[in-house]
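user: can you give me the structure for this one chain? tokens are fine.
assistant: on it. calling the predictor now.
[tool input]
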Amino acid sequence: MTKSQAYIRPFLGRGLGMGLLILLLSSCGVYKNYERPDDIKTDGIYGRALSGDSLGLGDLSWREVFTDPKLQAIIERGLAQNANMRQAELRIEEAQNNLKAAKLAFLPMLTFAPQGTISGAWDPQDRAAYKGTLGGGATKTYSLPLSAQWQVDCFGQLRNAKKGSEVAVENMKSIRQAVQTGIIANVATLYYTLCLLDEQLRISEETRDNWKQNLEVTKLLMEAGQSNKAAVASTEANYWSICANIVEIKDQITRTENTLANLIGEVPHSFDRNTLDSFKKPSMCVTGVPISILNRRPDVRQAELALASAFYGKNQAKASFFPVLNISASGQYTNSLGNLVINPGGIIASLVGSLTQSIFARGKLRAAYKNAKAEMEVAKIGFQQSVLDAGYEVAGSMARIKVFTAEQEFLDKQVVSLTDAVEATQELMKNSNQVTYLNVLTAQSGLLGAQISQVTNQFNVISGTIALYQALGGGTE
């Protein structure tokens, strides 16, 4: 070594070390973990709807919201048998397998490829003159190579890929939660729809029986000269209309039961159920603090996970600007060394390190990085909008519950008043000539309409509670 070489060598070593230090410092950003942006707005997302503390409806499990044992049994069957739910479970397994592979990417990759050959030349006629030329027999060679390749994660390429896989697993879990919440809400809605149809059928059948009696009385009055054929025809027409409506309600019950059976993965059949009165509205029907909706609603969580995935994608794109360090090692035990065949064999080993740095990639790396940053902004906008959409749905559900609950009190009073009116009209018709049978029919028609409105509004309260449960993310599990 010359004096100049000895003088320059320390500077080269320090320069290389300084260069690597600069690269490491400049790549620190690729090692950051995702954090929720501070400028995501949650204040006021419920509008004028009242919000309570964090112990709201969204913190109850579905069993605490839907306490009807018969409904709970149907929901449990649906969660176990629904095709979408089972597919979501398998998707989670796939994402978890990919995450395991991403974690193992930090370890060296080993390859073992043993080989063996037998070669030689011989004379098919076994002529003695050619034995020396063709050789004494077959030559046997073998090798047992073992190689290893290892990418050293100096600049976060593998780490960000692993983080992306972790986000993918969480996203699949959010999808499963969305499917589960949808199944619970849809099963509960169909169940109470059947309860509503049962009530409508009961009221209609009672009304049909009353109108049949009215028709018979009207015919007797016509025979006594106190009514006419027009009144009989009108009463008869109303009777047949109610009979037709009963047939329609029964058909709706069958179709709703078939829909429910299909939802939970069963063949069409009838379902044992209670009445609308069996529903107990949770006493805690507040929304909870706004920020909790970010952690509870599956679609909001998916939007944030999309932002997290874009964040790690941006880090991966940034990491592509830095070198890739690969270490390869190989070793083999063989009896073939060059042109020689020796027995026993010998060991051959090698170790190679390579550093690959992209210098000019025709703008692809820079374009990929800019696109990754743009995708991150797109995901952030989507996350914010999903929060606003969630608040809108919660506020709407709470407003509907409030309105239907207030209406229920007046509808109950209306039914009581019309029931008294029907009884009073019937009594007046018996004891005086001031009230005709037409007045009785009119009062009964008004009562029928009020009773239908009463049970429909009762169903609306239940439906609104189900919608609020779903809007808050499906509770805790």
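assistant: here you go. Strands lie at 109-112, 115-119, 139-152, 324-337, 340-356. Residues 1-13, 51-55 have pLDDT under 50 and may be disordered.
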